[in-house]
Amino acid sequence: MKLLSVASEIYPLVKTGGLADVVGALPGALASQGVEVRTLVPGYPSVLAHLGKAKAVRRYSALFGASATVLAAHVGGLDLLVLDAPDFFAREGGPYGDAGGNEWSDNWRRFAALSQVAADLAVDGIRGWCPDIVHAHDWQAAMAAAYLRFGPGHAIPSVVTIHNLAFQGRFPADIFPALGLPPEAWGMDGVEYYGGIGYLKAGLVSAAAITTVSPTYAEEIRSPAHGMGLDGLVNGRADRLHGILNGIDMDIWNPAADTLIAKPFAARSLTARTANRRALETRFGLDRDAAPLFIIVSRLTWQKGMDLMIGAIDHLVGLGAKLSVLGSGDHPLEGAFLAASDQHRGRVSVQIGYDEPLSHLMQAGGDAILIPSRFEPCGLTQLYGLRYGCVPVVARVGGLADTVIDANEAAVASGAATGILFPPSDPLALHGAIARAVDLHGDRPAWQAMQRAGMRADFSWTRSAARYAALFRSLAAEAA
């Protein structure tokens, strides 16, 4: 089976979050299921810099007003199709906005172009290669499903995966004439959304199937509380909705062979983690002692519950614990974390930004990772924590609830516990979860049993890739 995957980022070439990790890992996982994947991504400078030898497979003289070339290349085990459109993607800053955090005003055009090219490639193929299925990730690629449905590719099945329903790609109605869609695409059953245009909405209503990145999140988005205005649409297509849990690349995230940490270790050699803890304390300027060391590796946003975390820092320090933070996001929250670091020198330390190697060291050296999200479609950092013996302390939502076994008395006694769960959006519950973690950390046998249980868990892509492959094949059979 041949699959065209379409996404706005892919690890290790360009990454702002977990989307890139998933898009980068799925092709290899699906290959073992007999699915051949080629991934279409934008030609950002960071992507083009890694291409090396590439072949032009399609050219446009006026793609949404810009010249563009589709390049085929093989990079690090990934078969890539790169949309080289300098007018759209050759920019300083991030994939979606400038260095100051302001979104590009023409994002509607940039990602409509990506989606249109995906539909063109699906219809025309590439020198004998023609996909059976198009798999679009998030709003930046979701319009591919609409271009297929309202164009010559209407018989080609598409799947849209929701990585985070909060980001929908909403734009004013006056862009519709420039999208190149037929008049019938305007309407409630098309791209129109509350008087404007919704890219994700258009994809969800057009796709042959919808997936989310965890079973619990698939249920949550059917409710007004988590549906972000799309719960009615999602419920209307519930028979086409599938919750498939994300996995992780077990080779990249392998504490026994990780060259990015101070000292490799395994579940049977947990004492070797001490070298990573010391390296982490040194890197962040934290006191060197035996107190529980919590970490946060996250976007610093309301969704991630970071405002709640700010309110819990004094409590955490008061319990004798320490905290290291790596992340960026809302400027007021960044400032609040930096202020807490100044107030609690040696106990709290913060690095604004993202650093992939440092995130590995933090998972290897931290005792527990805090994830107080208000909602979390899947989450990957708790999976990395489990893999590295860094016990997750997480809100009971989405994929966090699906992947962490709470350390209640029965679970601890049976050796099944892997972390601590607490109700979301509740400051007192967060305080209680931190206190539980500190108490459990003082019981070394119980704590190490939790670490080992988490490290033994299988969060590879094996089961999830099989579910994706089965879904793709069923859709192809329907279309035949």
Question: Summarize this, please?
Answer:
The protein is 39% helix and 20% strand. By secondary structure, the chain is α/β, with parallel strands linked by helices.
Describe it:
- This protein has 480 residues and is α/β, with parallel strands linked by helices.
- The chain folds into two domains: 2-247 and 461-479, Glycogen Phosphorylase B (Rossmann fold, 3-Layer(aba) Sandwich), CATH 3.40.50; 267-456, 3-Layer(aba) Sandwich (Rossmann fold), CATH 3.40.50.2000.
- The chain has 18 helices and 18 strands.
- It has helices at residues 18-31, 45-48, 86-89, 107-124, 138-149, 199-206, 215-220, 231-236, 273-284, 306-318, 331-343, 356-365, 381-387, 398-403, 409-414, 427-441, 444-456, 462-479, and strands at residues 2-6, 36-42, 55-63, 66-75, 78-84, 133-137, 158-162, 170-171, 192-193, 196-198, 209-212, 241-243, 293-300, 322-329, 348-352, 368-371, 391-395, 420-422.
- A nine-stranded mixed β-sheet has the order 3-4-5-2-1-6-7-11-12, with helices on both faces. Strands 15-14-13-16-17-18 form a six-stranded parallel β-sheet, sandwiched between helices.
- Helix 10 packs parallel to helix 11.
- The radius of gyration is 23 Å and the shape is globular.
- The two termini are 13 Å apart.
- The mean pLDDT is 97.
